Amino acid sequence: MTLAPTAHDTATTAVTNSPPRRDPLRLTEAELAELAADFDAVRDEVFSRRGQSDAQYIRRVVVLQRSLEMTGRACLLFSRHTPLWWAGVGCLSVGKILNNMEIGHNVLHGQWDWMNDKEIHSTTWEWDFVAPSAGWQRTHNETHHTWTNVLGKDRDVGYNVLRMDPDQPWKPVNLLNPVINLGLAPAFEWGIAIYDIELDQFLTGKKSGRATFEDFKRVMKKLGRQSAKDFVVSPLLASLTGSGKASLKGFLAANVIRNVWAHTVIFCGHFPDGAETFTEEDVRDETRGHWYRRQAMGSANIDGSRLMHFMSGHLSFQIEHHLFPDMPSNHLARIAPRVREICRKYGIRYTSGPLPRQVFQAWRKVCRLALP
C-alpha cells in the first residue's frame, strides 16, 4: 500500500503467466493496466508543464492571503465601529480560508515542493490552524490518502466520532451523530487537532505512550500560539482603541466561519451519495490501476463557479485531487473533463453535484446512520 501515484511506480502488476482475473471492482487486470496508463498520461502531461506561471500563481495567492489577513486584523483594531467590524471579519475569514484551503492543504501535500522555495514547502509550512502541520500530514497524507475509504484503515471515515457507513457497527452513542457533527463544524480545527493525536491508536496499543504524549505536546504548543495571536494579543491591542471586546468577537467569528467552510468542503468531498467505501479484501494486492479506481470511486466533486473552486482550495475537484494528490491545485479544473471521460470509459461513477445538494446528502447520511 502506498501514499499516492508518485509512490506507486513499483506497485504489483498482473503476473503475465496467470490467467486474467476479475477484481472485486469488476475490471480485469488488462483493463486496470489501461486505466492506469490513461491516468498516468494525464498526470505526466501536467507535471511536464509545471513552470513559471504555476510558481507565479501560488506566490500571488500567498500575497493575496497575507494582504487580506493584515487588512482584517487592522480593521479589527478599530472594530467598535460596526462597518470596520464587518470588514475585518470578512477579510480575516477569507484570509484564513485561503491559508487553510488553497495554500496550506495543498502546500502540505507537496504540490509546490518542485519550486524548492522554503517559504512554500511541505517540510517548512505551518498553517493558521490548531492542528500542527506534521500531525495532519501523518493522518491525512499518509493514512487517509493511502487507505481512502477502506473501512478499518481510513480513520477519516467518521473521524472516530461519527458513524458514516452502514457497515460500521452501530452503537447507542451514534444516536448523537447529528449533534456531534453540528458541534464539529464550528470547532473543526479543534476536532482535527484532537483527532491527529490518535488517542484511539494509543488506547488499542497501536501507538506508544511516548509518541502520543509528543503529539499532545505539539498540539498544545500550537494551540497556545494560535490562541495568543487571535484571542489575547490582538484583542489587547484593540483595547487601546476601545475595541477589545468587539475585536475578540471578530476573531471568534472569523475562526468559526473558516471552520464551518472547511468542514463543509471536506464532508462534501467524501460523504455524499455515490462516494463508495471498501473492505480490506478489496485492496488486497492492489495494483496501480486498482488504486486509481478506488480514489475515483471514493470521492465526490462539487459543481460551482471559479470563485467557489478557489475558495475550496480546489477540493471541489476532490476526485482529481485524490487521483493526483501532489498535482498543483490550479490544474485540477483543466484536467477534470479528461478525468470524467476516463471514468466514463471504464464504467466508474463520477460523482459530482452542486454545493446545496452535496451538503444535503452528506448531512442526510449523518442523520440516517445515527439509527441502527
Automatic annotation (TrEMBL):
Stretches assigned to the Fatty acid desaturase domain: 84-352
Compositional bias (Polar residues): 9-19
Domain of life: Bacteria
GO BP annotations, alphabetical order: lipid biosynthetic process
Gene Ontology molecular-function annotations: oxidoreductase activity, acting on paired donors, with oxidation of a pair of donors resulting in the reduction of molecular oxygen to two molecules of water
Pfam families, sorted: FA_desaturase (PF00487)
Gene Ontology CC: membrane
Annotated segments matching region Disordered: 1-23
Name recorded for this polypeptide: Linoleoyl-CoA desaturase
